[in-house]
Amino acid sequence: MLISVHLPKTAGSSFVAALEGCFGEHLRRDYKDLPMNRSTAMRNLAALRGAMRLSGHDGVAEDIQCVHGHYMPIKYRLMRSATHKQYVTWMRDPVERLASHYHYWRRTYEPESAAAVHRRVVEEDWTLERFCLSREMRNTYSKFLWGFSPGRFDFIGITEDFAEEMRRFSHQILKNELSVPSLNRNPGRDQSPYITDPGFRQAIEQYHQRDMALYQYALNRPERHQLPPVGPMDD
């Protein structure tokens, strides 16, 4: 079973489109946990309760081959219904990820369905600086990966190299060709960096040191340099 963790604003929507083409009805979406809208204690407790539930007889249905969504991977760590699990996720430069997250929330706000933190950001009219340096948004990657070593991931894609990383995912994980969908980008901007002020960027990097370290770890994983030459796959 493929356990795909969608860290916010890391091309997860584009990635799941590719997974749907591969797994079809054998794909399960898991977006109900809302980890970033809980306190630290409640977020971790909910993940552990989910892990205990899935470790029993209420695991994922046998016909499910892939789970994708916003959840903490420790939730599926003890699952008995899948004896062999592969964990995958994507990471993006944390500074740019934060800015993208901010603008996405401002652009897509729907009061009737928005979760608590999303509602506060828009209705209290947070600035980009307040968002990026807020306690609620601090070290998002680290919060999702609580209790789960990044070394357990079989694949960590880098969003900035999406097309090439999708090819690597196809070869290293699926062992099969996979079409590369378009990124779900902000339609109202070019692809220049969101944050260009060096002082502001440095402040964000310092405040999110744990996520910066995780991103650097993902960049330096040795399998990123084991890409086959471009061309048809071997049979």
UniProtKB/TrEMBL annotation:
Signal peptide: none annotated. SUPFAM superfamilies: P-loop containing nucleoside triphosphate hydrolases. It comes from the Bacteria. This is Sulfotransferase family protein. It comes from Parahalioglobus pacificus.
